[in-house]
Structures are given as structure tokens and as C-alpha cells.
Amino acid sequence: MKKRWLALALALLTLVSAAALAEIAVPQPDSDLFYVYDGPNALSLETEAQIYYNNVNLYNACGAELVFVVVDDTDGYDLGAYSEAIFDAWELYDRDVLTVLSLSEENYWMLQGSSIERELTGSRMRALLDEYLEPDFAAGDYDAGVRKLFDALFAEVVDIYGADLALVDGMAAYEAGALAQSEPDAPGARASAPQRGFDWMGIAILILVVLVVISAVSVPRVRRRGYRRRGPVVIVPPPRPHWHIFGGPRPGPGPHPGPAPRPPRSPRMGGFGGRSGGSRPGGFGGRSGGGRSGGFGGRVGGGRSGGGGSRGGGVGRGR
């Protein structure tokens, strides 16, 4: 009986917590960048590019994402609950790690997905925060702190999943993508149209036209004056068969085929494509809310069904 009441109480507590988190207003992810949200513009373009392009590689290697959110404040909400609400609303999953910085409250919070919780423990996250973020955060150099923390966290997650992956220069990748889009096509670089063989349909039509012309010319013309033919002249044009190129009339069309079967959906793990949907790096579509020219390309795999609710515990500044 006690177990039943305990289970009921836990279920009720879960529902209340979920309802409370749903009421917290959190920022929406940047459609071009996703892995970084920088409301107060505290981060440099170099840091944003570093986070974005290395996340692209990390996701394709092991399915993990390292998301950073920087806000002015949390509208009075506890930073831990605020971070959990972002984790759920953004549909982060069990391999993802979220770091939220609230500048006016001088606080930060790191939250990991449930499947990485055993390796990336609370004590390990605290050690990473203390070593790589805290010194610069205390000095007000948020950009440097986030950059150092991301690089260290990237190496940590790569080691956990045993991925054969190294950090790339995000800014170099950004500039290479911008250059590729700004340069015109080099001479001869455009893909030529596919070469077709003989146009059999065109040849058949040409033969048909020639036959009609020959038939029309071979019929004797009637003079308007002078000689007058007896009786009406009936010109019967030759039949117009559908000529088959190898001789003989072309058979009529067969029955109309039915609809093709629906192709299978692509799996979640894809290339730079949208979770999936096309190559992402090099796409520059404008940054919402940041005022920077140029964007990145958005989340590699899009929103994931079933995301959220698969988070572990979290740690914050001085906790």
C-alpha cells in the first residue's frame, strides 16, 4: 500500500514539475546557429563559429551536441529550473550538454543528458567549470571563458564516446564557406547538361512531316482558269500513323501506372544535412537577434522527436 502511495506521489510530483517548467518563458534557438544563443551579444563571431562548426563534426561522429545559451537574466526563475526548461523546449537529447550563463545574476549552470551522466558526472562538470569558465567569468571576459570551456568540453565528450575527432578552426571554416559562396563559378566549373543520344521522337516526327509534304505535292493541282476537271476532286490525305523508328506503327499507350511507393524516411544520423536535409557548413543565412552579417546553417539534424526529459542532474557556480 505504501509503495502504491509513493508511486502516486512521485507521478504527481513529476506532473507538477513538468507544468512548472512549461510555464517558464525561454528564448527560442537561433534558426541559423542553434548551438549558440547570445542574447546580450557577449560572444565574438570567432567563438560562435568555433562552437558551431565543431558541433557539426561532433554530432556526425557520435550524435552529441554542446549547446551554450547566454542571457541577461532568467526573469526571476531559478537558473537550474530555467536551464531544464531550455533543455526540454529545445528538444535536447540524452547525449547533449547544455551550459547557460546569466550575466546580470552572475551565475551559470551546466546540465547533461541522462546517457552521459555516468561519465560526465556532476563533480566532473564542476571541475570543468571551475578550471575553464570561472576565472574569465569572474573577470567579465565571458567570451574567453566560453571558448575555453567549449574546447575542454569537446575533448571530454570525444573521449567519452571514443570518437576519432579533433577540434577544427571554426573561424577558418566560416571564412571558407563565405568565400565559396561569394566567388563566381570558375570557367569550365559549371556542370554541363547531360548529353542525350539520338532524339528518336524528333526523328519520327520529321519523317511524318516529310511524308505529308510529299503526299500533298504529288496530288495534281486544279487551275482556276482554263482547264476544268469533271466532277468533284476529293483529296484524301494519307493516314498519319504513329511511326515507330524501326518501322511500323507505334502501339498505343498502355495503362496508366499507379503511384510510386513512398520512399523510406532518412535516419536521424546523417551527413551535414539536416538531421537531415542537405549540407550545412558554408550556409550563411543571416543571424537572428545578433546583428551580425552572415549566418551558419542551423542545427545539423533538426528537432528530434522524443527530445527533452532525458536530462541528468546539473551544477552551477559555487554549488
From TrEMBL:
<dbReference type="Pfam" id="PF04536">
    <property type="entry name" value="TPM_phosphatase"/>
</dbReference>
<keyword id="KW-0472">Membrane</keyword>
<protein>
    <submittedName>
        <fullName>TPM domain-containing protein</fullName>
    </submittedName>
</protein>
<keyword id="KW-1133">Transmembrane helix</keyword>
<feature type="domain" description="TPM">
    <location>
        <begin position="36"/>
        <end position="155"/>
    </location>
</feature>
<feature type="signal peptide">
    <location>
        <begin position="1"/>
        <end position="22"/>
    </location>
</feature>
<keyword id="KW-0732">Signal</keyword>
<dbReference type="InterPro" id="IPR007621">
    <property type="entry name" value="TPM_dom"/>
</dbReference>
<feature type="transmembrane region" description="Helical">
    <location>
        <begin position="200"/>
        <end position="220"/>
    </location>
</feature>
<keyword id="KW-0812">Transmembrane</keyword>
<feature type="compositionally biased region" description="Pro residues">
    <location>
        <begin position="250"/>
        <end position="266"/>
    </location>
</feature>
<feature type="compositionally biased region" description="Gly residues">
    <location>
        <begin position="270"/>
        <end position="319"/>
    </location>
</feature>
<feature type="region of interest" description="Disordered">
    <location>
        <begin position="240"/>
        <end position="319"/>
    </location>
</feature>
